[in-house]
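Holo prediction. Input below; ligand is pyridoxal-5'-phosphate.
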Amino acid sequence: MNGDSDEMAAAERLTAVRDGIARAEQVARRPAGSVELIAISKTHDAEAIAPLIAAGQRVFGENRVQEAQAKWPALRAAHPGIALHLVGQLQSNKAEDAVALFDAIHSLDRSSLVEALAKAMAKIGRRPDCFIQVNIGAEDQKGGCAIADLPALLAQARDAGLPVVGLMCVPPADVEPAPYFALLDKLARDHGLPGRSMGMSGDYETAIMLGATHVRVGTALFGARPRAME
Ligand SMILES: *Cc1c(COP(=O)(O)O)cnc(C)c1O
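Structure of the complex:
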């Protein structure tokens, strides 16, 4: 494909996702524009990202600190006003790099990371919004804190002065996600948190019906990723 058709395809995919979001907002009787679309650009290079920026998308997400450090400083310099969200697991030794680069962190999931982020924010002088990731399906291999550990982790994060704005989840694969979205919504409400980061390419409309404030959409905007890169 030449550059023009890439750009066209990206703009069309963005329009389709925005239409889906608008439809779900309307069905759920939620205000138009109340859901934030985070374009998940992991594994995609600057050439693939530029057409989405040209089409007006300004909020992007990555799952690896190093990959984001390699790609985004140049793109941001060229396109002011971009917000960058970290949606992948964060090692404590990368907390400073993450705080320096990202505007929001969706993967706060343990006590040691609360400490590392609080220290990093004090040192760097930036305070990215934090979402606590909940292991909503109690899966062994998944990131996120156990539901039972959420109250203590949230209290610790608030005591440490972290700007906790909401909860995030990735429901189990290949099962109906709605019950998990409903549960995350309830947990957020119980704890007085406004943000619900939930819903991906296959289920963002369902997530919006159930209260998502931030949807994380990759494949529906960029096309398929090579599986080995996830
Ligand atoms: C990759 C990823 C997404 C986007 O997934 P798609 O199915 O491509 O939309 C969303 N959230 C997280 C945490 C991810 O790692």
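The chain has one domain: 3-229. That is the main takeaway for now.
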